[in-house]
Amino acid sequence: xxxxxxxxxxxxxxxxxxxxxxxxxxxxxxxxxxxxxxxxxxxxxxxxxxxxxxxxxxxxxxxxxxxxxxxxxxxxxxxxxxxxxxxxxxxxxxxxxxxxxxxxxxxxxxxxxxxxxxxxxxxxxxxxxxxxxxxxxxxxxxxxxxxxxxxxxxxxxxxxxxxxxxxxxxxxxxxxxxxxxxxxxxxxxxxxxxxxxxxxxxxxxxxxxxxxxxxxxxxxxxxxxxxxxxxxxxxxxxxxxxxxxxxxxxxxx
Length: 253
Known about the structure:
The radius of gyration is 21 Å and the shape is elongated. The longest helix is centred in the C-terminal third of the chain and has 18 residues, at 235-252. It is α+β, with helices and mostly antiparallel strands. The chain folds into three domains: 1-60, no CATH class; 71-102 and 163-230, no CATH class; 107-157, no CATH class. The strands form two sheets. It has a ten-stranded mixed sheet with strand order 3-2-1-4-5-6-10-11-12-13. A three-stranded antiparallel sheet has the order 7-9-8, with no helix packed on it. It has six helices and 13 strands. The protein starts with 5 loop residues before the first strand and ends with a helix.
């Protein structure tokens, strides 16, 4: 089992006078600092409603956990109508470049496909399929684009995936139901079902065949997920990483 050494949580009520924010540093070398302006007892319908009796955030609150040992982050969120817990690393250089340029996550998968078609280390010809997309104003900060006097377009990508997803966890009432969700996320990262229900030999064999791991809610690892070694980025996988990055920004901005 791993220990999460820092926790960041941000919860805003409707009133500025009843706002509670807890921030942590984005990177390990920064000091953790907090700014609490209201106690849970003073705001039973706001901040207090999102805390347990011990004062820790409930599972439904926005919580970012930082695993310092692996320089990774972890949070739970909804991604395309699926509730997932994702562990990921952040590309520090890309993150800081986006902060400087005022850029956030890129949600347009076709735009991401167009960017992937452009080389990152040199100027290269652009497929006619993506010319219109890279001529858009929204692409100005994402790629260097040059018009060819003889027709066509040349481009060099200046943006990279801001996060790399290391694991995807699905909490479910059973392995079978969890696998239904996990199948939607094949090709996005290692997938593990978290459940308290036992599984049959057939269900374990089927999950293993698809590379899906199983971990009990008490921490017992019944079956680890298959090793995830992608050969390259796809536009769909990059979009998922951007969705994760968008929630990361919401939690840290």
